[in-house]
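Before surveying the methods themselves, we first show a specimen of the format, giving the amino acid sequence and backbone structure tokens:

:::
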Amino acid sequence: MKRGLLDICVLAAIKNEDSYGYQIIKDMKPYVEISESTLYPILRRLEAAELLTVRSAEHNGRLRKYYHITQRGLERIRTFREEWKEIISIYQFVTKENSDE
């Protein structure tokens, strides 16, 4: 389950603008810690699933990979939001206080 959540977090990090690895890690840091060794396999998996695209651009004399969310990626975020409502409901059921405990 956590793996899927990290995928969604990465997509959310690039939802509004293209970004690159180090910036994605910085943007996610207030919410979830993620290392480069975790991030880059996620980015490759998301690219293979056509949830994002990648382009290289020169920055300060070096090539930097920028990631862009696709329509399919945006749809995955929308689907996640719907699924999350059910997960919250399940969580509330599991953690509710019983009057006979």
